[in-house]
Specification:
Layout lengths: L28 H13 L3 H14 L4 H13 L3 H15 L5 H12 L3 H14 L6 H14 L4 H20 L2 H5 L3 H14 L4 H13 L3 H14 L4 H14 L2 H12 L6 H13 L3 H14 L5 H13 L3 H12 L5 H16 L15 H14 L9 H13 L2 H14 L2 H11 L6 H14 L4 E5 L4 E5 L13 H16 L6 H17 L8 H15 L6 H8 L3 H11 L8
Antiparallel strand pairs: 1-2
Helix pairs in contact: 1-2, 2-3, 3-4, 4-5, 5-6, 6-7, 6-8, 10-11, 11-12, 11-13, 12-13, 13-14, 13-15, 15-16, 16-17, 17-18, 18-19, 21-22, 22-23, 22-24, 23-24, 25-26, 25-27, 26-27, 27-28, 27-29, 28-29
C-alpha cells in the first residue's frame, strides 16, 4: 500500500480497462478511457474527471467505468463523492466487485473515519483474501488497529465468524474432532464426502481424523485430493506440511512451506494454524511476526496465542518477550502449572547463557507430564474430568494401532473406562483386525462386553469375521488382560485340587472373574503378591463349600500372613455366589 505510517492514506488508484486499445478515432468509452489516463499522468485531474464521466455516458451499466471515476474523485480529495460512486457500484451494478470495498476503506481512512475504514477493509479481505490488493489491505488493517486505536470492527467480525464457525462445525464434522471423537469423525465425514464430494472443509477434517487415528496414508491422500481441487487451500497446506515432516518427501514439505510463508490469513484460526505450522518446521521468525500481528488484532489474546508468542520468542532467543507472555498466561484459570513449567525452563536457559530455548507450540504440558497426570486421573477413577481431551484421545488411538502388547492393554482398559460411543467404535474396529494377537483381541472383547453387555460384535476369530452377541462371550477372556491375573487363577485351581474341594472351583472362578471385571475399569486395588489373592480365594471357596479350614492354615500353606489373607478376603467376599 502506497502510504507512510501517518494519517495520509492517499492512494493512487489503478485504472481498470474493459476494452482493447483504440485504433481508429471514434468517440466511445474506450476513447475517453485513454484520454482520462492521459490527463491523470499529467496530473490534470479536472480534465481526467470529465473524461471518465464521458465513459459512463457511453456505458452507464459498466461498473468499471464508475470505479475509475471514483478513483479520480478520490485523487481530487472528494472522498464523499468517491464513496457515493463506489456504493452505487456495490448496491446497483456489481455487489461482487471487491475492489470497491478496499477503496471505500481507503477513502474513510482519509476522512478520519477509522472504524468505517476497518469495516470495509475487513469486507474486502473477507470477499477476496488472495486478491490484488490483499497485501495493502492487510497493512492498512494493521495500521488502523495499531496506530489509530482500532480493533472494534475486527472483534465484531471475529464474533460473527465464530458464530458461522459453530454452525459450520456440524456441517463439516469439526465438532467431533474438537471433542476428540476421532473414530466417529472418520465414519461421519466419510458419509458426508460421499454425498458432498466438493466439501473441502469436510475433506480436510477427514484427513485430520485419519491422521489422529494413525491412518497416515489415507490422511495424506485425502489432503492431496483437496490440493488438486484448490492448490492454495490453507488448511490442506498446513496439514500436508505436518504430515510431510514425518512421512516425506522433503520436496513436498518445502513446496508447502514456501506457500505458507507468503500468506497472512485474516481468519484467526487459519492464522494460528499457519503460524504454528511454520513454527513446527523451524521458521520461528515468521511465526513470531504472524502471532505478534494477530495479537494486535484481537482485544484479548487467548491462551493459545499467548503461549504461541512466548514459544516463538523463546525459540528465537527473545527471552524477555517470552517471559512477558508466559507471565500473562499464568494469570489464566488452570494454566498456572503450564506457565510455571515454561518459566522454570526459561530461567535455566538464562542462567546457562543459552542463545535460545526450544519450546513446543502446543501449550499443554510435555508428554511425560501428561502421562503422569493421566495415571493420577486413572487412579482417581474420575474419567468424566478428562475423557473429552482430544490430545489424550489421539495418543490412545495411536497406541492402540501401533503400541506393543503392554501399551495396547493399557489403552484398551482406558477406553473401557471412557466407554462412550467413540471409544467403542475404536475397539470394534480393533477386534476386526487380522494382525492382532488372540490374547489382545480377547482383552478388547472384554472391554466391549463391559461397555455394552447386551450389544453385538463382529470380530476376527483367526480364520474369518464372525458376528455374535457380546453376552455369549465368556468372562474368562479377562484372564488375558494381565499375566498375573491368569497366574493367580491357575495357582488357585492347583490349591483347590490339592485340597480335594471339587465343588469349590466354579464359585472361586466366578468370584475371581467378578473381581477382575471391577479391577478392569478401576485402578484402586493393587495386586502385588499373587499368593495373597490365591489365599483369599482358596479360603473363601473352601469355607463356602462347608468344609473346615482356618485363615491361619491357608495362610501358612501359601506363605502369607493372616492379616494379608484377611484383607484379600474382604475384597473378594461379595463376589462369591454363596456369600451374597
Amino acid at each position: 500500500m502506497a502510504t507512510d505510517k501517518s494519517e495520509n492514506y492517499t492512494l493512487n488508484y489503478k485504472m481498470l480497462r474493459t476494452g482493447n486499445n483504440v485504433i481508429d478515432m471514434r468517440l466511445d468509452a474506450a476513447y475517453f478511457f485513454e484520454r482520462g489516463v492521459h490527463f491523470l499522468e499529467r496530473n490534470h485531474l479536472s480534465k481526467a474527471l470529465r473524461a471518465f464521466q464521458r465513459t459512463i455516458e457511453y456505458e452507464p451499466e459498466n461498473p468499471v467505468n464508475h470505479f475509475n471515476l471514483a478513483g479520480v474523485l478520490s485523487e481530487m480529495g472528494d472522498f464523499e463523492a468517491s464513496n457515493k460512486v463506489l456504493l452505487h457500484v456495490l448496491n446497483d451494478l456489481d455487489p461482487t466487485m471487491a475492489e470497491c470495498q478496499f477503496y471505500l476503506a481507503n477513502n474513510y481512512a482519509n476522512m478520519g473515519e477509522y472504524e468505517a475504514a476497518e469495516e470495509h477493509v475487513l469486507r474486502y479481505l473477507d470477499s477476496d483474501p488472495d486478491g490484488e490488493y490483499a497485501p495493502d489491505a492487510e497493512e492498512m488493517l494493521a495500521l488502523l488497529v495499531d496506530e489509530f486505536g482500532g480493533g472494534r470492527a475486527y472483534e465484531r467480525w471475529r464474533e460473527s465468524q465464530a458464530e458461522k464457525e459453530r454452525s459450520a462445525a456440524h456441517r463439516d464434522g469439526r465438532h467431533l474432532l474438537e471433542a476428540g471423537h476421532f473414530e466417529a469423525a472418520v465414519e461421519y465425514l466419510e458419509d458426508i464426502i460421499q454425498d458432498q464430494p466438493d466439501n473441502l472443509a469436510a475433506m480436510n477434517n477427514l484427513s485430520l481424523a485419519y491422521y489422529y487415528t494413525a491412518m497416515h496414508d489415507e490422511a495424506i491422500a485425502t489432503t492431496e485430493r483437496v490440493l488438486e481441487i484448490q492448490p492454495d487451500n490453507i488448511h490442506a497446506l498446513c496439514n500436508l506440511t505436518v504430515y510431510s515432516i514425518h512421512q516425506g518427501p522433503k520436496a513436498r514439505l518445502y513446496e508447502c512451506v514456501d506457500k505458507l510463508r507468503r500468506v497472512f490469513p485474516l481468519h484467526y484460526d487459519q492464522a494460528m494454524k499457519v503460524g504454528t505450522t511454520l513454527g513446527l518446521v523451524g521458521d520461528h521468525e515468521t511465526a513470531l511476526q504472524m502471532f505478534t500481528v494477530l495479537a494486535k488484532l484481537v482485544e484479548i489474546p487467548d491462551a493459545a496465542l499467548m503461549h504461541s508468542i512466548a514459544a516463538a520468542a523463546a525459540n528465537t532467543g527473545r527471552f524477555a518477550t517470552a517471559r512477558k507472555w508466559w507471565k500473562q498466561l499464568r494469570q489464566l484459570p488452570d494454566l498456572e502449572a503450564v506457565a510455571d513449567y515454561h518459566l522454570d525452563r526459561l530461567d535455566t536457559a538464562v542462567n546457562t547463557n543459552a542463545h535460545s530455548l526450544r519450546v513446543s507450540y502446543q501449550y499443554d504440558l510435555p508428554i511425560e507430564n501428561q502421562f503422569a497426570e493421566m495415571k493420577r486421573r486413572l487412579n482417581s477413577a474420575q474419567p468424566s474430568e478428562w475423557q473429552d481431551d482430544p490430545v489424550l484421545r489421539a495418543s490412545m488411538y495411536w497406541g492402540l494401532r501401533h503400541g506393543n502388547g503392554e501399551t495396547r492393554r493399557a489403552v484398551i482398559r482406558t477406553l473401557a473406562i471412557i466407554g462412550d460411543e467413540d471409544a467403542q467404535k475404536a475397539l470394534r474396529l480393533f477386534v476386526r483386525r487380522t494382525d492382532v494377537s488372540q490374547s489382545i483381541r480377547q482383552v478388547a472383547l472384554s472391554a466391549l462386553k463391559i461397555c455394552d453387555p447386551n450389544g453385538m460384535v463382529e470380530y476376527y476369530d483367526g480364520t474369518q469375521i464372525v458376528k455374535q452377541p457380546l453376552d455369549n462371550l465368556p468372562w474368562e477372556m479377562l484372564l488375558q488382560v494381565d499375566s498375573q491375573w491368569s497366574a493367580i487363577w491357575q495357582q488357585t485351581q492347583a490349591m483347590l485340587h490339592k485340597k480335594n474341594c471339587t465343588d469349590c472351583h466354579l464359585p472361586a472362578k466366578t468370584a475371581w472373574l467378578g473381581f477382575l471385571k471391577r479391577l478392569f475399569i478401576r485402578n484402586d486395588v493393587r495386586v502385588i503378591k499373587p499368593e495373597v489373592w490365591v489365599a483369599g480365594l482358596v479360603y473363601l471357596a473352601i469355607k463356602g463349600a462347608g468344609q473346615k479350614t482356618s485363615q491361619k492354615e491357608v495362610a501358612e500353606s501359601l506363605g502369607v500372613s493372616v492379616s494379608s489373607l484377611r484383607k484379600a478376603s474382604r475384597r473378594l467376599q461379595t463376589y462369591f455366589p454363596l456369600n451374597k
